[in-house]
Amino acid sequence: MGRWEPNARERLAKAALELYSERGYEQTTVAEIAKRAGLTERTFFRHYADKREVLFGGSVALQDLFVNAVAEAPGPAAPIDAAAAGLEAAAAVFDGRREHSRQRQAVIAANTELQERELIKLASLSAALADALRRRGVTEPAASLTAEAGVAVFKVGFERWTAAAEERTLSQVMRESLEELKAVTAGG
Amino acid sequence: MGRWEPNARERLAKAALELYSERGYEQTTVAEIAKRAGLTERTFFRHYADKREVLFGGSVALQDLFVNAVAEAPGPAAPIDAAAAGLEAAAAVFDGRREHSRQRQAVIAANTELQERELIKLASLSAALADALRRRGVTEPAASLTAEAGVAVFKVGFERWTAAAEERTLSQVMRESLEELKAVTAGG
């Protein structure tokens, strides 16, 4: 087997999620993930630090997309509209990935350690968004509150999008969740 | 030394925070905390599971206060006003405790494990608030979004209240942060 394997990273992620869904996260070993993907453990560790990180391999890219969209929103855009641009950019990543996302959500919901890792991911996203908003000239506490609001919409919207009967796109669900947040904070 | 020590729980919490601030959280042992408080390790473990939980001993009581105030808000109150009642009840707990809270925030900011524990506390609070709002008849996603908004205000407000130059009460800062959240989500 050569050192370079086409799509190794994606194959490992797919194999890991399959095994976590079938047997449970705790019961799955890196050796089993590598075997299912037709790769070696050594190749696994070239791509992921451990079996937990397979589930969070896209976090940095997602955060970058979200933050860049906030940074590049039109100059006069209100903070919440810049955050909305970030939500749109983030949502686009998940086109065609609802079933994968549902499986991932189920695996995370079944394990406390993974839930904690997910909370850290969202807190990191919120801090990065607040930073991007401050660089746009938004002052505190508006920057932090807008960032928290954006992450709340992402979190709640994502949960709704992965619910059993949901058929709308993530982008649609995010937009509706943002409108709903605006309505509740307006006292509606 | 008798089995029952007056104010043992508070004395241990005070001693722990002092030692964490002086020497760092990692460098402090349970034995040292007990000694500083003039108590035994055995007494420590009657009150706290470990040295981390000393910093989170008030979390359950805080969550109960917050949630009960939401549950008991006047029947016709809009969800965000019920959440505001919860913020008021929670803020009252911290009267006269700003210096303690500042020290605690500094200890937590210096340690990743403690930051994670704090995130779990806030996620648990958000889930409990959403539950209380649903029991008031608030539907989804409004219940979850209002709960997330309430926790965002609590988090950002608390950080502002513990900032160096801040002199207003936590209640005032929370109210202002909620108004600011309303302004940013309204696109202002």
Main pleated-sheet profile of chain A: none
Secondary structure: number of strands of chain A: 0
Strand content of chain A: under 5%
- Output the helix-strand order of chain A: HHHHHHHHH
What is the number of helical segments of chain A per DSSP (H or I, 4+ residues)? 9
Shape of chain A: elongated
- Which pair of chains forms the biggest interface, and how many residues does each contribute? A-B, 34 and 34 residues
Task: Kindly report the oligomeric state of this protein.
Answer: homodimer
Kindly state the mean pLDDT of chain A as a whole number? 93
What structural class should be given to the helix and strand makeup of chain A?
mainly alpha
How does CATH name the architecture of the largest domain in chain A? Orthogonal Bundle
Low-confidence blocks of residues of chain A: none
* Helical amount of chain A: 55-70%
